[in-house]
Write a structure and sequence with these properties.
alpha/beta; six-stranded mixed β-sheet; Rossmann fold; 300 residues; three-stranded antiparallel β-sheet; globular
């Protein structure tokens, strides 16, 4: 019988046999994953199969960070005021945001400081129009939960911004499940929204950059973030009505106020990137409408 062995330094020799991977022993080592990771923060380039095995074996590590994440969220600052959800102006752009803590407003005092509100304001200011928006959010919201919603009632919407992923990283969601859930979400949106609406998938933030995480946890979390973001990017590249926007390099600019990290500045930076992609999506929508109108005139 042919068997392939993979040694991982955080504790197992795994072997592949018909039926799947099987652990053999618990050789706990103080080193990191030999042969699979570089000396730096980011994981080395891995084949999809090897990456999947590593994430499977790292589930206990990710579950620990899930528990720490839940504790952190309970203690974190979130806006306590009511959102306005409307910016006055002609021909309002209609937005919908679906997501976890990035939509809820992690780390800021007021709704106007959130990524959602800032994105809407940047869009309105740039195109000289009003803006209205709705949200579907929860701190533990996963792609699977959104995919199971019976209907995404987003009919009066021009652009839907999907900002999911943090809980899915910590739950070690497989790339197949992630892809399937995103495809279901897209299908739901296409079935319940206007035909010319656009969807923007936001990349998963580099969550390991914003809290102290031991080296092994950092590498595993980065690996899982990269895997899911890669799937999202590939899915968006195949759909003409979908865009993908990666999280920006947050180290550019002033992110500290009196030596304290500024979540307000981070929300604003993320919002500017999302707004730029949203504006491009609106431009694409207008182009499609003009082309459709020209075709209709030609047919008549």
């Amino acid at each position: 019988m042919s068997r392939s062995y993979v040694h991982v330094q955080f504790g197992m020799t795994a072997r592949f046999m018909p039926g799947g991977w099987h652990g053999a022993g618990t050789e706990w080592s103080a080193e990191l994953v030999r042969g699979f990771f570089t000396a730096g923060d980011r994981p080395a380039t891995l084949s999809p199969g090897v990456a999947a095995v590593l994430i499977l074996l790292a589930r206990p590590v990710l579950r620990l960070h899930l528990a720490l994440y839940k504790l952190d969220v309970r203690r974190a600052q979130f806006p306590v005021d009511n959102p306005e959800r409307v910016i006055p102006g002609p021909d309002p752009v209609r937005l919908m945001f679906i997501g976890d803590v990035t939509v809820s407003g992690y780390g800021v005092l007021h709704q106007g400081m959130t990524t959602v509100a800032k994105t809407a304001r940047f869009v309105a200011e740039t195109c000289g129009r009003g803006c209205s928006w709705t949200t579907i959010s929860a701190n533990d919201l996963t792609a699977a939960r959104v995919a199971k919603m019976s209907t995404l009632d987003a009919t009066p919407v021009d652009v839907v911004l999907v900002m999911l992923g943090v809980p899915d990283v910590l739950l070690a969601t497989s790339t197949n499940a992630w892809k399937s859930n995103l495809e279901t979400i897209l299908e739901q949106l296409r079935n319940h929204t206007e035909p010319n609406r656009r969807v923007v998938f936001a990349g998963i933030p580099p969550m390991v950059d914003f809290r102290p995480v031991p080296p092994l946890g950092r590498k595993m979390l980065r690996l899982q973030i990269d895997r899911l973001n890669s799937v999202t990017h590939e899915l968006a590249s195949r759909a003409p009505d979908v865009s993908f926007v990666p999280f920006p390099d947050w180290r550019v600019g002033d992110m500290y106020v009196q030596d304290a990290f500024s979540w307000k500045s981070l929300h604003e930076m993320w919002a500017r990137v999302l707004a730029a992609t949203t504006l491009q999506a609106l431009t694409d929508t207008n182009s499609d409408r003009r082309e459709s109108g020209s075709e209709n005139l030609g047919a008549s």
